[in-house]
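Review this chain:
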Amino acid sequence: MKRLVTAIFAAAILAVPAAHAAPVKKAAPAKRATARPDWVQTVVRTPEGGMRMGNPAAKVKLIEYGARTCPTCAAFTLGGVPSLTKSYVATGQVSYEFRDYPIHGAIDLAPILLGRCVPGRAFFPLLETMMANQRALIGRPDEIPQAKQEELQKLPPNAVAAYLGKFYGYTDFIVKAGLPVARAKACLADRKALDAIVAQTAAANKAYTIPGTPTFIVNGVVADKVADWTGLEPVLRAAGAK
């Protein structure tokens, strides 16, 4: 009997005209989760000659004028930037731009030229590696002979950069890091790149009167007497970073 009832029930369902059948609702397609931008890997060169990582529309825009031969800059890169990128850049709240500033003059030229000689995404990892090895690179015990110093004063700036890059080990350092020797030499000999460094330094002094390195600019305003992460983080939070 049960089988007969079941068969009659099935037949009745099949006999219902299509117009009277309950509409079958199609399941809504599953929404794909929107991938969150990897702001730390979003790196672009700026018109001012710096390299910026992060959300270009970030509420807080941080600029650091730093030198690759500056111990205080190295301390910030190694001790502050990890917290900066993890807590603020990665979340899209802060963009971070590094602009080279040759605080020590000719000595800075080779590391700047070589440091800009890599693709955008390699810029910050190389900067960190240079800072981590700063003491070994510029802390060598021997000095440039007096006769050579006098000779350097008569050479073109790019030739001086090439010599100092070799003397302090920056050229060998970046070649060991993977940059071809020919490419390293070409970057050291790039007169337009060197002229750009000079122009960008003059522009920085005109805009902000850079007192030393590092100098931090937060939303266009110099963070006065701030040279480390402990002092910088409250400035970022006061500007709107959370």
Notes: The chain has twelve helices and six strands.
